Description:
globular; mainly alpha
Amino acid sequence: MVTDPVAAFILVGSFVLLIVMGTRIFYAMGMSSVLTLWYLDIPVIVVFQKLVNSIDAFAFLAIPFFVMAGDLISAGGISDRLIRLSKALVGWIRGGLAHVNVLASMFFGGISGSPIADVSSLGVVLIPMMDKEGYDRDFSTTVTMASSIQGLLIPPSHNMIIYAMAAGGVSVSALFMGGLIPGVFLGLALMVYSYVVSVRRKYPVSNAFDAGEILVAFGSAFWGLMTVVIIVAGVLTGIFTATESSSIAVFWGIFITFVIYREMTLREFWNVLGRTLVPLSQVMVIIGMAGAFGWVVAWLKIPDYLVNNLFAFIDNKYSFLLMANVLMLFLGTLVGMSAQILILTPIMLPFLDKFEISYIHFGVVMIFNLGIGLITPPVGGVLFIGSAISRLSMESLTRSMLPFFLVMVLVLMAVTYLPDITMAVPRLMGIAN
């Protein structure tokens, strides 16, 4: 039983009410925590102490560096080279630019780890390009948004670092490798669906197959692609930690944009620094507020209540995984990604232990789930950006996204119930736990 049912009602009720009223997630968590502590006659300063303690972790230093690395890639000419390489590799298939979109997102996500950076950078180029070749604007936008979710799964991903901390120190290297096959699997599924649509709508082939162009495009994109190799290889070999790899990604990005590609000025670099501060401040405030909110949740023993009562009828891991997926897909439409990871992970851990589910496997499932939330209304950040770039309403884009949602959920179910999809690479490398 919870320590104080009335306090639990105040905490959860005020939080839900504030969210429904349209309050920003970090304000809702902070205000509901303060109200609950005020009722319990606990000094409100505890909220701020827990906020500071929650962000006082070395691993979180990776977040600003990965965000900055993504912006450097967007502004430094790397994204254009990735598009050229993708076009050379798959542009000769029916609906070529749709496949280019998916493959470019796969490459780009493997460097930035950010769906929002993906859509912002690639969308402004590929959506108009697809318009000129006769693709429907809603299809061009939705394939751009759907493919951007690969960036959350393909390493590196700063959201996996947040999950690793929330789960009590899960191996970041294992999480990175665990997301590799699911990310590629998602990309292939989106390409198959895009091909079917392209054949039905008679979308064009972008270019003829040219082995020479592939080599030239690969040579041009080589230095950008090396970002992934450096990060992943360095973390797996233990040369540097995941946190250190993020700073190395920034310095490597600076080197190739200023020295090799020479497509960035000092003024543009300062603009990149400014753009980094906005998402960074949002993420860090959310992490801090979620830490305070989570402390109140734990103090009231709400997770224990859920384990012993609300979920008592769940007697096997398959039922639990199904319920967890439904819950996360629903919450993904209402609550931001970082906040959900920090709130839900401690609640889910007892079930993972009970049903002997790998923390790595569940982490990838959670990130995948919450990634879908980024393209669903009303709080989907990727949906907002896609709407702004395409100048189509979120309502029309949501309707057009429905077939993509189906494809993504089918892949999600495969990743959920076939854990070897996630665990194969970590086991092969001997880093699964």
